[in-house]
Amino acid sequence: MVGLVTIGSPLASGRFDVDKLRENMQEPPTNLAWWANFWNVLDPVAAHRGLSSVYNWMLDFRIGTGFNHHVHDAETYLSHDAVAEAVGFGLFGSKSKEIVLAERGLDIPLDASELTALVALRYAHLLKERLDGEQGIRFAGALRQVQATVVDEIRQRNKEAGRPLPSQVARLAFDASDSNANVPEPLPSRHLTKEDAVTLLTVLASENVIRPFDINVDRGKWLGAMRELTSEMGLGSQYGTHVFEAAKEAQDVLSGALVIDWKKWGALGAGAVALVVATGGLALAAAPGVVGAAVITSALAGFGPGGMIGGLLTAGTLVGAGGGGIAFSLASPGTSAETVEAVIQRRLAAAILRQRQNLEPDYTLWSILTSNEITVRREYERLDEFSDESAQALKELKKKLETIGRAMKYLSENGLEPKLVEDLAEDAEDLAERQDTAARQPSPLS
Question: At 262, is the secondary structure helix, strand, or coil?
């Protein structure tokens, strides 16, 4: 692999016929690691613009040397510090004098943000091993960049917080500028309880773990990676199957589709960020389990809600958050029907997963749905009195009510609706009667 430095290139000028070259170089050559082009803003040969207008995959650097009659001279370009540094990097590599392993991590427990990031990277690496050909190459390249970014973000966040870097994170670092550098794989994920894994794995199955890159991979391969991940975590491969089955069932319930629309299932990202921003973070009021409220507060401050780590944590909180904040946020007029459906879909999937794994039901979703149904229906009746039937606001509210209604119907029909006081009393009476009957039975030893 080689690097390329160009100075004052005329390839962006309309006087040169570059159509064929542009067509042949829509993608970088396989043996080219990087291409940096430098252009002088006053250089007429460079058409007063860089080459990224023609080749959008390369790097453009605009430099200024002041007005003179030698703006296109090689000497003018090569005497600029930025150009000299790029040429030096190409010839001799990084000018850093630090030892590659200058930073060693400490053997300390991972916090929730670090755990989420490492499990996501492990999941992505397990998938990478199932890909081949051109798609496998692209996925490996995207994962390489994502892993470098994740490690840097955690290092920076921890530095600002005065927290040491855990050894499990430190060992994933590599020289991203070296195209031949090996990308270390995360160690097999630590064991989690079935309870703690519900939210984390529901989110991983639906979110893009190589954000901001987007590669459409067959869901069967994702399922295989999830089964291996849950097996490593001591949950068993069947847990991974249940994660995907719950996702599909939740999708079918809310949309009535016979075939799951995985792109729609994974479309929470931007809507989740908008929901958090619009409510001033109220949507993240509380979150039990692996992702807690305090963790989310620090995570959004350290990573932001849009990146891979912040995005996963934000989505995880919207799936596992307590009823009050999330209920208010979903009922907000500024929350789109699509975002409401995406959040309810994931929470419904988590409820289905809990049932399939014989875990105690979490009735928070029912509380959120009933609260939203009341608020949204009131708003619909208020606007319906004077608005046109075709009003967009009414359409949005109607979609929200349909989503809420379908979810509540499913919960009620599948034993996931909270029991009434009368039902609880009957259960208590039945239990007491069974205990009394058992007590009257003669002992088999008598």
Answer: helix
pLDDT in the model for residue 308: 77
Non-local (6+) Cβ contacts of 231 within 8 A are: 237, 240
Give the max Cα distance, the chain.
Answer: 114
The per-residue pLDDT for 139 is 94
Task: Give all strands of the β-sheet with 32-40 in edge-to-edge order.
Answer: 2-7, 32-40, 59-63
- Return the pLDDT at 135: 92
Report d(CA 328, CA 278) in Å as an integer: 11
Mean pLDDT in consecutive groups of 10 residues from the start of the chain, 446 residues = 80 66 70 80 71 75 72 82 84 60 65 87 94 92 93 89 90 85 86 87 87 88 92 90 92 68 45 47 41 47 66 74 63 79 88 92 87 89 89 90 92 85 50 58 48
Whole-prediction pTM: 0.69
- Is the separation of the CB atoms in 353 and 196 below 8 Å? no
Q: Name the DSSP letter for residue 134.
A: H
How many Å apart are CA 430 and CA 438, to the nearest integer?
12
Looking at residue 41, its pLDDT comes to 74
Strand (E) or helix (H) holding 59? strand 59-63
Consecutive H or E run containing 4: strand 2-7
- Token digits of residue 68: 């003179």
Following CA atoms 237, 241, 244, 245 in sequence, which dihedral angle do they give, to the nearest 10 degrees? -160
Contact between 142 and 210 (Cβ < 8 Å): yes
All structural domains of the chain with their residue ranges:
2-92, 112-235, 262-422
- What whole-number distance in Å separates Cα of residue 392 and Cα of residue 58? 43
Taking the C-alpha atoms of residue 296 and residue 273, their distance in angstroms, rounded to an integer, is 13
Alpha-carbon distance of 47 to 43, in angstroms, equals 7
Token look-up 């491969």 returns 237
Radius of gyration of the chain (CA): 28
- C-alpha distance from residue 38 to each of 4, 13, 21, 52, 87 (Å): 11, 15, 19, 11, 11
What letter represents residue 216's amino acid? N
Predicted local confidence at residue 288, as pLDDT: 40
Please give the DSSP secondary-structure letter assigned to residue 184. Answer: P
DSSP state of 101: T
